[in-house]
């Protein structure tokens, strides 16, 4: 309410609070205010409020190494596809012949391979999730459950809206901004990463893959593609992962942490 553009204040505010170990109680306080104005459970933490922007910046600072060990190997693999994969990607969007359709089918299999690999790397990565992120997710989860006590799923969607939609999915579609790739990806690789990111967002959304969710895709082939993911094992994997990253129970040291740089220069 004081800043004309509150987003300019978010990054220095988060760095200051991280330095003084006060970020978790601050995020909990502004998130509680945010939830007071939230009328529906399915819109929890979906806007760009002070609370959500603070969590975004915290994840970028604290979760940098977590992203690197979880996603970089598979992102590097996507960045070096075969020429057949590139040609199939074009034909998948604009199938112009029976040969094109057959090649597109090959592309769908490749896309499923990448989506499945990214998804598996994410859901098995909870042991590497920084403790601070887990503490923040724990607070958000319980605040959402308290605000909407009659919705059993909101405690999961409150966490998935950050860790899947605003963290992993964003890093997949823009790996260069998270230092997962040295340069902006070329047009074809960017297209592939966009499709993978959409898939991760959908799989990470708490609940089953309903017809309404499937119909939200502009690409008709994506609707068919996601029918192969309509299995309980994917939902259960997401649930277990969200339980793990929003728990305050002590985890075994992963040996993957590194110092967080709050100041440069």
Automatic annotation (TrEMBL):
It comes from the Eukaryota. SUPFAM superfamilies: GTPase activation domain, GAP. Keywords: GTPase activation. Pfam families: RasGAP. Residues 243-265 are annotated as: Disordered. Residues 5-205 form the Ras-GAP domain. One of its GO terms (molecular function) is GTPase activator activity. The keyword Calcium does not apply. The keyword Cell membrane does not apply. InterPro entries: Ras_GTPase (IPR039360), RasGAP_CS (IPR023152), RasGAP_dom (IPR001936), Rho_GTPase_activation_prot (IPR008936). This is RASA2 protein. The lineage of its organism: Eukaryota, Metazoa, Chordata, Craniata, Vertebrata. The gene is Rasa2.
């Amino acid at each position: 309410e004081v800043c004309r553009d509150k987003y300019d204040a978010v990054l220095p505010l988060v760095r200051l609070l991280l330095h003084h170990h006060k970020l978790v109680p601050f995020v909990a306080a502004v998130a509680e205010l945010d939830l007071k104005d939230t009328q529906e459970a399915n819109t929890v933490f979906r806007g760009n409020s002070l609370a959500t922007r603070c969590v975004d910046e915290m994840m970028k600072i604290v979760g940098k190494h977590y992203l690197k060990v979880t996603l970089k190997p598979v992102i590097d693999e996507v960045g070096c596809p075969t020429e057949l994969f590139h040609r199939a990607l074009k034909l998948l969007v604009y199938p112009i012949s029976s040969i094109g359709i057959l090649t597109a089918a090959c592309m769908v299999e490749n896309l499923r391979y990448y989506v499945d690999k990214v998804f598996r790397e994410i859901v098995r990565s909870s042991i590497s999730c920084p403790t601070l992120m887990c503490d923040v997710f724990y607070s958000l989860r319980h605040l959402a459950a308290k605000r909407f006590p009659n919705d059993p799923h909101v405690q999961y969607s409150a966490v998935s809206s950050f860790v899947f939609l605003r963290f992993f999915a964003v890093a997949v579609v823009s790996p260069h901004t998270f230092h997962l790739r040295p340069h902006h990806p070329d047009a074809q690789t960017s297209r592939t990463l966009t499709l993978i990111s959409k898939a991760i967002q959908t799989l990470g959304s708490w609940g089953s893959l309903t017809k309404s969710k499937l119909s939200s895709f502009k690409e008709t082939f994506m609707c068919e593609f996601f029918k192969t993911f309509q299995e309980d094992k994917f939902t259960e994997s997401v649930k277990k992962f969200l339980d793990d990253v929003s728990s305050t129970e002590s985890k075994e040291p992963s040996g993957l942490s590194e110092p967080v740089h709050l100041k440069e220069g």
